[in-house]
Design brief:
The complex is a heterotrimer of chains A (532), B (98) and C (505).
Chain A: H1 5-8, H2 13-22, H3 27-45, E1 48-51, H4 53-69, H5 71-75, E2 85-88, H6 115-122, E3 127-131, H7 165-172, E4 178-182, H8 189-195, E5 198-201, E6 222-226, H9 229-239, H10 257-261, E7 270-274, H11 284-299, E8 303-307, H12 315-330, H13 352-363, H14 366-379, H15 385-408, E9 411-415, H16 431-436, H17 442-447, E10 451-459, E11 462-469, H18 475-493
Parallel strand pairs in A: 2-3, 2-4, 7-8, 7-9
Antiparallel strand pairs in A: 1-3, 4-6, 5-6, 5-10, 9-11, 10-11
Helix pairs in contact in A: 3-4, 12-14, 12-15
Chain B: H1 6-15, H2 22-39, E1 63-64, H3 74-77, E2 84-85, E3 88-92
Antiparallel strand pairs in B: 2-3
Helix pairs in contact in B: 1-2
Chain C: H1 13-19, E1 20-31, E2 68-69, H2 70-82, E3 86-87, E4 90-91, E5 94-97, E6 107-110, E7 117-125, E8 131-143, E9 147-151, E10 162-166, E11 173-179, H3 189-206, E12 219-229, E13 239-244, H4 247-266, E14 274-279, E15 284-290, E16 300-301, E17 308-309, H5 312-320, H6 326-337, H7 341-349, H8 353-361, H9 366-383, H10 395-406, H11 412-423, H12 429-435, H13 444-457, H14 459-466, H15 474-483, H16 490-501
Parallel strand pairs in C: 13-14
Antiparallel strand pairs in C: 1-11, 1-12, 3-7, 4-17, 5-6, 5-16, 7-8, 8-11, 9-10, 12-13, 14-15
Amino acid sequence: MTTTPQSLIRLTAAQMAAKLAAGEITSVELTQAHLDRIAAVDDTINAFLHVNAGQALETAAGVDKLRAAGGTEAESLHPLAGVPIAIKDLIVTKGQPTTAGSKMLQGWMSPYDATVIEKIRAARLPILGKTNLDEFAMGSSTEHSAFGPTRNPWDTGRIPGGSGGGSAAAVAAFEAPLALGTDTGGSIRQPGAVTGTVGTKPTYGSVSRYGAIAMASSLDQIGPVARTVEDAALLHELIGGHDPRDSTSLPEQVPAFAEFAANHDVAGLRIGVIKQLQGEGYQAGVLARFQEALDTLREAGAEIVEVDCPSFDYAVGSYYLIMPSEASSNLARYDGVRYGARVLPEGGPLTIERVMGATRAAGFGDEVKRRIILGTYALSAGYYDAYYGSAQKVRTLIQRDFDAAFEAADVLISPTSPTVAFPLGEKLDDPMAMYLNDVTTIPANLAGVPGISVPGGLSEGLPVGIQFLAPARQDARVYHAAGALEKLLNDAAESPLWAQIPALVPAAGAGPDASRPAAAAPAFTPEVGGAK
Amino acid sequence: MSEISRADVEHLAALAHIAMTDAELEKMTSELGVIVNSVKQVQEAAGADVPATSHPLPLTNVFRDDTVGHVFTAEESLANAPDAEGSRFKVPAILDEE
Amino acid sequence: MTATVTEPQPLTFDQALESYEPVLGFEVHVELNTVTKMFSSAPNAFGDEPNTNVNEVCLGLPGTLPVVNGKAVESAIKLGLALNCQIAPYCRFARKQYFYPDLPKNWQTSQYDEPIAFDGFIDVELDDGEIFRVEIERAHMEEDAGKLTHAGASGRIQGADYSLVDYNRTGVPLIEIVTKPITGAGERAPELARAYVSAIRDVVKALDISEAKMERGNVRCDANVSLMPKGASEFGTRSETKNVNSMRAVEHAVHYEIRRHAGVLAAGGSIVQETRHWQETTRTTSSGRPKSEADDYRYFPEPDLVPITVTEEWVETLRAELPEPPAERRRRLRETWGYSDAEFRDVIAAGLLDAIEGTVKQGASPAVARKWWMGEISRLANARDLDPAGLGVQPATIVELNGLIEAGKINDKIARQVLEHHVDGEGTPAEIVAARRLEVVSDDGALSAAVEKAMAENPDVVEKVKGGKLKAIGALIGPVMKETRGQADAGKVRQIVLEKLGVEG
């Protein structure tokens, strides 16, 4: 295989790492190939809000230098050293802007790195840039970004999922081999499903949340985004583990997930089909691919059983109370006092109350406001028990359903999303329809259990995702099951699904200059300063 | 549960410190009504005997040693401030003129 | 928002008490003396340059998370035990949400319906020694807010052009102690208010969990006052006077609020439930923010912090570390030392209980210890503008000094000089006596010569003494002292004079 830039970017992260370790390619070549790809296709895809070319190449050059010098330092390099990565712009990074997809934080520079970023820097992965998302991760389509929607590489008229549409699209479009996402109600898995890529929501507490801008603290989790299960497992190993700065971080070390991903033997594995996550509301094509996945696994020796999780019917209701409640609180800090935008009210007395009101009116988009108001309602005096309190009880019931289901099955399986990628704009005016799209992914967040989405084939030319769920702290099981299904389907199709992603023919004359304006953003000029 | 009125939304917007125009209040009132109608079924799901879950994983007693870590200089603290004076953040008057 | 309607004149205190029974309640905030903050590793320090004792957590930057200071939790449990509270086996933090520029996250992390300590009491000693039991409702952990400075002509929040914010205090660990309604104090309500705050301050000092300096805001008191007609059992509407920051002010604020409430009620008016501000200059309170429905704090369990469970073992370990309760200790020491009430009160007021106890432990009698600490040491400290306890004099030094007197090596006057030289850093008393050759002249020959000389120079005095006016001997002692550079023993001089003149003493 000749290593042209075009072929380089189509390798898996594990293959890139092997070639780097073998000295067949350099990290600078690899990083530059991705920067070139971003320059070529990202005007179309809009996966990146910020491209970090200089720093990425610097990191790459550092890795190359260490490798060239040999010795113990070269040997002690992390296996993924030199493999580039993209970061969802909800995760704070020193030296690059972090916007959370919001005008509120436009221009804000974090003075600290998230724990996962510290780990990535320590392992010397070049950071390509920050990827697009629904504002403050609130959405299922990336259309709620203040900086324009990201487009699905399979069909640029369709959504890439959300909120992590930028990370998923970047990986699907070969702009990055790896990316970080965050998953509060499916924001890693659903974009993975609709872009034909792999995404994991780890067990709550498996990966430190320190430096992930909070939407809903008890649901948020950072996780890996990749094209293969093995790559996701490798990245999860890198970013996982205990962090004393996150009180909810689990104390135990993360196991070698990639080894589980490489175990393709499913003989005797009990796989539970969740009765409540199929049937009505699911597209026929999605159900067909799902059924094929079950058949494939059964033929490979897995034992398919049905499990009943009756409380899942209340999951969306519970989620859309708990999430906005916590979000309304977490987003209270954006008030124009300490950082971020400050907008002065038009007319009237200039008081801090009114400045806060004007700042939050101008800085937040409609979906964010909707959730803040909903959460404020759910927590307000007289309604707490009926809404927030009831929702937390549902959470208990959902955990109990999972406990019972995992008595009967080692892992659970469902379609990741009821539908394939829908056209841009289709659900923008119907918030409730958008919310219902999360029905399959939400239970895992409410219960804190791990989940993964792995490609399950195409329906009318668009990817379908298969979701595996495992008990809390048993993330290894989802890598095992997903790795096995991926292998079985790839063997049957004689190629991975992502090999079929349309070429997105590079625009003529796309040069190596990968730096581009931060975003195709709507004009927004916060009035800064001068309180007078 | 009672319907959400425009006055309710106005009160919520005030609590949340989000200035809203009349048109926004109208739109938010109708959207909120639809959403609340869809989610309020959670009230019938669980009986009084079901405990609430606030944290997905049952950790307890996570404490920090009482030792000093890094601090910012005043300059670093104020680096992103919309307005400052000396080494302090500057904000408009806190109360209306009386 | 200031009420434009003028309130009726307050009644006199006595008038108020004729018709009404005061009901008190206190919320005392205690700042802990931990090295770091409640939820971040930034230093808990006072008086530094603004916004330099903060990190990303204190400033509530996006993505930051809190982690509980374990020491602060132990302090809270200890305080709960010292206040005879139950310790909750399970409790959580909650977010109390309201927007204010001194709150970086626009919520305060506090405890809501699950305080770490609840249902306790403290026995408060009034000025005459009477004990009044105050029931404690709860003690809970929370974080302090930043500090606002209002710029403008007045320097007050009203009419300020703008405000400046320093977040150094943000996140300093606080324990809020809330009493149950206190009835039955009657005319002693103001005195009880002061004594209660004083008792809380003593407890936290004894526990060594707070600097307890009220002038620095380490201990801050919100005083609730309501009145009910005598004989009634239903409480009236209360006012909450915020941040009364000295014990005297607490007493005065309660005194004033009782009078003000009575004035309003007697005129047929009704009390508005509101926050009041204490005005030290006029010793009155002024109207603040009325409590309203807008106070919807939307509490919910803090998802970023995990619950705290306290086992019996943990409680017992901490209980074993508790010092003797301050009130008990005072009672014990007063009885053991045999001071009069007035003497003992003065010792407490001077803050010399520890010093005297230490000196007695080292072997001095309680009387000697009190004499030195309340006398010469206090005088020296006063001249240097220091606390007596802060002068650096050790109990052992006093014992040594007293030993020199008792051995007849120096007299009282010399001893006072020695002490001053000691404070000036000249060494131990024995070293100073040796170096400055201050030992009493007990050599009879030298002393006798000095007496002869003095008698020769003062024949009139000699005549008086001979005539039986023994008091006149004092006039000879001065010259003898002068001759011996103060090192003569006055008793000895008197004895020699009498011997020489053959007069019976």
